[in-house]
Amino acid sequence: MTRVHDMGGRFGDGPINPEPEDAAVFAEDWHGRALAVTLAAGFLGQWNIDVSRHARERLSPKDYAQFSYYEKWISGLADLLVEKGVLSLDDLRGVAVEHTHPLAARVLKADAVASALAKGGPADRLSNTAAQFKPGQTVRTLRPTANRLVDGGHTRLPIYATGATGRILRLHGSHVLPDSNAHGLGEAPEPLYAVVFQASELWAEPEHPADEVVLDLWQSYLEPA
Amino acid sequence: MPHDDHDHPHALLPPEPALRVKALETILTRKGLIDPAALDEIIDTYQNKIGPQNGAHVVARAWSDPAFKAALLEDATSVVADLGYYGRQGEHMVVVENTPEQHNMVVCTLCSCYPWPLLGIPPGWYKSDAYRARAVREPRKVLAEFGVTLPKNTAVRVWDSTAEIRYLVLPMRPEGADGLSEDELAALVTRDSMIGTGLPKEPS
């Protein structure tokens, strides 16, 4: 099993009700603030993107289901700040004694924002792991889906695609493995593929016989079929 | 009933979301860990500078210049970087082309992955449970809710962004757009047409 965030294919969510294209980027001022605080805190360098995704996924299922999108972000961030020792529980309670923080030297200043955002954080790496599969080759995803390094840990094979047979569409090169990187176990880069699945391989009642779903999957999520 | 799971530190912050953000911002600012002016700058960037107009520029160029389009489909990351579109959440770009035989649509079922440098911050619906849950299983019902009906012989290929690859849909150029300038073509490109939940506007 994975966690509550792994909702692809789930029934019961109802209509999507898309807002118009010209709707405000941030529906509420605090949405933009939540995004900005999260990004700025990330630049303190105490975690990576896989750690921060996992922090949101580890919200309790009740919280995850009740929280709006940016509530998940800000709550996951608060948990992470405490877990990584950046803040204490007393800090969150508002009763801590103020002192200069050892990480304050790393604070993201306004004049550094543009270059920091433009720089990005590429995930491709050189790897010692050779590509085992070629485009066109048939593969099967692991079953059950799970982080094989940390029980209950972060993984990016959705449960709807577990044990499914598909075809390698393209090799993206070697990328950081989230299952390792989310847990302080190193980047462990390995080949990453786009794998295409017939909808009928994933769903009992596919809408159309020719429909397909593509997922980006790491080599260790796959076996020859 | 408590709003939060009290085993988690976030439950110590105020429950109301706007106050929760404000409280965390205040704590971090007092400790010198964030600079409120930097937050303003981040918000301004994604509210006013980076948005779907970037992706529309890329699509319009691809519609007007076959060599550009071929290069874009071959190696989107370097081609869009040459236009100045690179950065956070757009480090590895792949562009997928719609054809009469195949319609492409993008989702992130596990979170909200989206090509920020080309489309900005994702709209609310893209991040909703309903879209994340349904797009992979019933894309045609989802498309119908966006007012899109595909021809019977068009297959749907849904891209679930499970890694750091970010996908942009290259929609089909509308009929009757001959002779339009690149800027005029860009005005036909909607954000949703680049996610695959919409189609470009028809030339008037």
From TrEMBL, chain A:
Keywords in alphabetical order: Lyase
Residues covered by the Nitrile hydratase beta subunit-like N-terminal domain: 1-104
Molecular function in Gene Ontology: nitrile hydratase activity; transition metal ion binding
Keyword Glycoprotein: no
Catalytic activity, EC: 4.2.1.84
Family matches, as InterPro entries: CN_hydtase_beta-like_N, CN_hydtase_beta_C, CN_hydtase_beta_dom_C, Elect_transpt_acc-like_dom_sf, Nitrile_hydratase_bsu
Nitrile hydratase beta subunit domain segment(s): 122-224
Name used for this protein in its record: Nitrile hydratase subunit beta
Automatic annotation (TrEMBL), chain B:
Keywords, sorted A to Z: Iron, Lyase, Metal-binding
GO molecular function terms attached to this record: nitrile hydratase activity; transition metal ion binding
Reaction(s) this enzyme catalyzes, per UniProt: an aliphatic primary amide = an aliphatic nitrile + H2O
Binding site for Fe(3+): 108, 111-113
A Pfam family annotated for this UniProt entry: NHase_alpha
Chain ranges of the Nitrile hydratase alpha/Thiocyanate hydrolase gamma domain: 17-197
Catalytic activity, EC: 4.2.1.84
Enzyme class: lyase
Lineage: superkingdom: Bacteria
Coiled coil: none
Family: Belongs to the nitrile hydratase subunit alpha family.
Name recorded for this polypeptide: nitrile hydratase
Species: Ruegeria halocynthiae
